[in-house]
Amino acid sequence: MCGRYAITTPPQAMRDLYRYMAQPNFPPRYNVAPTQPVPIVRMNGAAREFALVRWGLIPSWAKEMPQSLLINARADTVADKPSFRGAFRHRRCLMPADGFYEWKEMGKGAKQPFFIRRRDRAPFAMAALWDNWMSADGSEIETCAVVTTEANATLAPVHHRMPVILASDDFDLWLDPAATPKELAALMVPAPDDLLEAIPVSQAVNRVANDGPHLTDPFLMPLDATPPKKKEKLADNRQADLF
After folding, report:
1. Could you say which of 55, 110, 146, 151 would form a disulfide bridge with 155 (CB–CB 3.0 to 4.6 Å)?
2. Active site includes 144?
3. Active site residue: 2, 93, 142, 144, which one?
4. Mean pLDDT, to the nearest integer, of 13-22?
5. Where are the domains of the chain?
6. Tens digits of per-residue pLDDT, 195-220?
7. Model pTM score
8. 212: left (phi over 0), alpha (psi -120 to 50) or beta
9. pLDDT tens digits for 52-66?
10. To which CATH superfamily is domain 5-216 assigned?
11. Percent of the chain scored above 70 by pLDDT?
């Protein structure tokens, strides 16, 4: 958690909300997966900056690309865990989203996907970290991870964790390089119970290649549903760009 999400807010509306100067043009995406390029908002000097980075953090000190994808960072250990503590101190960012997916165990190995969104359908920002890694051949890659916390009462029946969702009034503090650990800890809490809703959707979202608004249509799996024969691998670096 969080392993898939959606970005559907039009470019100009996203630019107005996050107050960056760039004017990127991109289509809506309903099934964004790890290792794909994803948009973040970070500080560049005194101004906010839009950037595309790879989802799956690689610490700057790593000698080689990790075999396990670091797509999430736990709020309770992010300040101390070697993989994240440098980025947490110096390279925090926002990950714009319109919703994210979570899966609930239904028995017999089958899982019911849920699309999680704000009740008012407004976009939101997930707290995140970014880092810059250089490979042995000198090529550089910027990467990110979502910060997660315990699930609130709305999401707990689906999954025990959720991304940290920041109120717009807290964007500046999360991005402030001078913010203290105590101030940041106060932000890394579950979202209010009445902020989000969980919509059951079809297993079509399980395939990375599937995209489109139909993925968020309500669909409740039958009680006798069986799991897929094999689990699809996550996206890799060869996959088409997000935008």
Report:
1. 151
2. no
3. 2
4. 96
5. 5-216
6. 999 999 999 999 999 999 999 999 98
7. 0.91
8. left
9. 999 999 999 998 888
10. SOS response associated peptidase-like (3.90.1680.10)
11. 91
The CA distance from 46 to 195, in Å, is 31
Q: Is residue 230 over pLDDT 80?
A: no
Residue 19's closest CA among 143, 165, 175, 164? 175
Whether residue 223 is predicted with pLDDT greater than 70 in this model: the reply is no
Q: Is 2 an active-site residue?
A: yes
Give 119's contacts (C-beta < 8 A, 6+ positions apart). Answer: 194, 195, 196, 197
Query: Region 11-31: what's the mean pLDDT?
Result: 95
CA 146, chain centre distance (Å)? 5
Classify 19 in phi/psi space as left (phi over 0), alpha (psi -120 to 50) or beta: left
Does residue 71 surpass a pLDDT of 70? yes
Q: Residue 209: left if φ>0, alpha if ψ -120 to 50, beta else—which one?
A: alpha
Instruction: Select from 34, 190, 200 the least CA-distant residue to 104.
Output: 200
Residue-by-residue DSSP string for 80-125: T-HHHHHHHHH-EEEEEESEEEEEEE-STT-EEEEEEEETT---EE
From the list 49, 64, 93, 102, the catalytic residue is 102
